[in-house]
Specification:
Largest interface: A-B, 19 and 19 residues
CATH topology of the largest domain in chain A: Hypothetical protein af1432
Distance between the termini of chain B: 11 Å
CATH class of the largest domain in chain A: Mainly Alpha
Strand content of chain A: 5-15%
Helix content of chain B: 25-40%
CATH topology of chain B: Rossmann fold
Radius of gyration of chain A: 43 Å
Number of domains of chain B: 1
Number of strands of chain A: 10
Oligomer: heterodimer
Structural class of chain A: alpha+beta
Number of helices of chain B: 5
CATH architecture of chain B: 3-Layer(aba) Sandwich
Number of strands of chain B: 5
Number of helices of chain A: 18
Shape of chain B: globular
Strand content of chain B: 15-25%
Helix content of chain A: 40-55%
Number of domains of chain A: 3
Distance between the termini of chain A: 101 Å
CATH superfamily of chain B: Response regulator
Shape of chain A: elongated
Largest sheet of chain A: 5 strands, antiparallel
Largest sheet of chain B: 5 strands, parallel
Strand order of the largest sheet of chain B: 2-1-3-4-5
Order of helices and strands of chain B: EHEHEHEHEH
CATH class of chain B: Alpha Beta
């Protein structure tokens, strides 16, 4: 392997090498493969007169004739000896090697004491020192080359390390998202965006099939990050055939413009990773228009997207399980509350409506999504203790006796006892126990007052009273809306929290009215 | 005594630095090449026990180098492990033209590479490869 492929550009080592040479009173030329001079000594240390002399045509010719000796000796690594071109004027040939190749040719000019040169050189050596000096220059050359190469490697390392750090960090963030069930679409969108930022793709799409019904918020959705070169709708349309593939068998991940309409539409390779759930393809992770100098997709990106698609599959499975559990939980709750409401036909749907109002007020108070949900559940179960109150008392038309009223007043404590061992309902217990307390301390069962009453119970008190007044009861007909709202306003600071009551009356009651109407229809049918 | 002589070829010096470093720690003698042609020259000059090479490299690809290694009587018995950055699937016919024993796709685990190096050297009939 003897090749003379020397670049025309001065190599990075020329500058530092010629600077060192100039300090030592040595001039240095850089020549191409044919021996032609590409760079001449210009260092100020050499002095202007000497520099001008070094740049003259005869000198240049002498340098080129020495450099061409390299061309004749085609074997890389053969050390050419120093040549005394004129008395006291030595030319030292040097080559810079990279592996088996010659990367550059240099010629150094050194003067010895017997030099006959005008203008006189600033530094002169003894003729006996020339071989040692030649060797030293070779070492310089090797060391500079090595240090330059190491510098490049370190640059590459830092870049790869930075990239690896980003990728690790992204995996870490994704791992944390796996429990994020409250806003799945937002979580998936965020994964897509971060992926697109970390990996060199122009765009990225995550889509779920219509069949993934168990996760309603993702079913049929396509989330795009970055800028696809075509209409996103086209991406949806052209990736449909992929989604229709039921299983991963025979799946082609790398789509090329030649054999895929999707890749052709985007004008570049597209990576298509299936997202699966129980072996079924339920979605796709698409990435395309790779940025950077190398437009071809590499196994580095493929592995990362493969892992992400797996993650999305597990995430989806997690969401489906969660949705199932939630469905079951609410189904059970509804069955429970329906059985209470059924004890008194006038209170049909009461618990569900109180849940609705409590969650609306919680949302208006800007409470966390999780709390809004909890307030709804609290509303649904707040009267569960009525199960322990005789029907005759609950449904009695007209005035209750003191003893009967005492029986009714036990329902918050009974409800609390029923629910207290269900860990998932721990948050709603204060609401169940204290929803009949009054702001002025005149309620039951514990006569708590003001802020001593937990917030959830103060909210339930408003929702409960509002629904009771708005619906027909065994002992009185429903009150008109304006009177109900007036009662709430009047009750602020006595029966109700003085800050919550004014907020409550500003709520939009249209959902409530629809629920009331549908419960009334159901009840009439039942009657 | 070295556990064996290995040529590592990749145009990305951070790969050769890491791989060579790990192999040297295991007691191997390592030569570095930055393309297929250089690796071939080193191998022909003094046949190694194993070549670990990238697929895509300038001047001469890792695959072509492996084909040439097998064609040259001096290096016909030298096994190779190939690293690919493109999940290249070499057909059985393509592989048969070389002595490639394993394909690892990038990013590969260094641990896995070392295990494969051990596997290849252990399977060599004449090698005294008692990989450290």
């Amino acid at each position: 392997m003897t090749e003379l492929s020397v670049s025309d550009r001065s190599p990075a080592v020329y500058e530092p090498l010629s600077r060192r040479c100039a300090e030592l009173g040595i001039a240095l030329w850089h020549c191409d493969a044919g021996g032609r001079v590409l760079a001449e000594p210009r260092q100020p240390q050499l002095g202007p007169a000497l520099r001008q002399w070094l740049g003259s045509a005869p000198i240049r010719q002498r340098i080129e004739s020495v450099a061409s000796l390299f061309t004749e000796s085609r074997t890389v690594g053969v050390e050419l000896p120093p040549i005394e071109a004129l008395p006291g004027q030595w030319l030292l040939p040097l080559e810079q090697r990279q592996g088996i190749r010659r990367a550059a040719l240099f010629v150094a000019m050194v003067f010895t004491t017997d030099a006959v040169v005008l203008p006189a050189p600033t530094v002169v050596y003894r003729a006996a020192d020339i071989p040692r000096l030649h060797r030293t220059l070779r070492w310089f050359c090797e060391d500079l080359e090595r240090s330059e190469r190491d510098g490049r490697t370190i640059d590459q390392f830092s870049e790869k390390l930075g990239q690896a750090y980003e990728e690790t960090h992204l995996l870490y963030r994704m791992a944390r998202l796996i429990n994020c069930v409250s806003d799945a679409a937002q979580a998936v969108q965020s994964i897509g965006q971060q992926l697109q930022e970390v990996l060199p793709f122009g765009w990225l799409a995550i889509r779920f099939s219509q069949h993934s019904r168990s996760v309603r918020e993702l079913s049929g959705r396509m989330l795009i990050a970055g800028q696809p070169p075509c209409d996103p709708e086209q991406i949806r349309l052209l990736s449909d055939p992929l989604l229709q593939q039921q299983t991963e068998a025979g799946w082609k991940k790398l789509l090329r413009p030649g054999d895929s309409a999707l890749a052709a539409a985007t004008g570049a390779e597209v990576l298509a990773e299936p997202i699966t759930h129980d072996g079924q393809v339920i979605g796709l992770l698409l990435a395309g228009n790779k940025r950077g100098p190398d437009p071809e997709l590499s196994s580095v990106e493929m592995q990362f997207l493969d892992a992400t698609a797996d993650f999305l599959g597990v995430f989806h499975e997690n969401l489906a399980r969660f949705a199932e559990q939630r469905e079951m939980f609410f189904g059970t709750l509804r069955a429970l509350t329906a059985s209470i409401d059924a004890k008194d036909r006038y209170t049909a749907g009461h618990s569900e409506r109180v849940g609705l109002l409590a969650s609306k007020l919680a949302a208006a108070m800007n409470l966390d999504r999780r709390l809004v949900e909890e307030y709804r559940i609290a509303g649904m179960v707040h009267d569960v203790g009525k199960i322990g109150v005789p029907e005759a008392v609950l449904c009695k038309p007209g005035k209750l006796t003191a003893a009967e009223f005492a029986q009714i007043k036990r329902h918050p404590e009974i409800g609390h006892r029923i629910l207290k061992d269900i860990p998932a309902l721990a948050g709603v217990l204060p609401g169940v126990l204290w929803h009949h307390e009054r702001w002025d301390g005149g309620g039951y069962p514990h006569q708590l007052a003001a802020e001593k009453i937990p917030l959830i119970a103060r909210v339930l008190a408003l929702a409960d009273t509002f629904d009771a007044m708005s619906s027909t009861r065994s002992y009185r007909p429903a009150m008109p809306r304006h009177r109900v709202l007036e009662e709430i306003r009047v009750g602020a600071g006595t029966q109700f929290d003085p800050e919550l009551a004014p907020l409550f009356v500003t709520l939009d009651f249209s959902d409530f009215d629809r629920a009331l109407e549908s419960h009334r229809v159901l009840e009439q049918r039942a009657a | 005594m070295s556990a064996g002589r290995i040529i590592v070829a990749d145009d990305e010096s951070y790969v050769t630095t890491v791989v060579a470093g790990k192999l040297r720690q295991q007691g191997f003698e390592v030569l570095i090449a930055c393309d297929g042609e250089e690796a071939l020259a080193l191998a022909v000059a003094s046949p190694p026990d194993l070549v670990v090479t990238d697929y895509q490299m300038p001047v001469m690809s890792g695959y072509e180098m492996c084909v040439r290694l097998k064609q040259d009587p001096r290096t016909a018995g030298v096994p190779a492990i190939m690293l690919t950055a493109r999940g290249h699937h070499l057909s059985p016919a393509q592989l048969a033209a070389t002595n490639i024993r394993f394909l690892l796709s990038k990013p590969f685990s260094i641990k896995e590479l070392l295990a494969r190096v051990g596997d290849v050297l252990a399977s060599l009939p004449t090698s005294g490869a008692s990989a450290a």
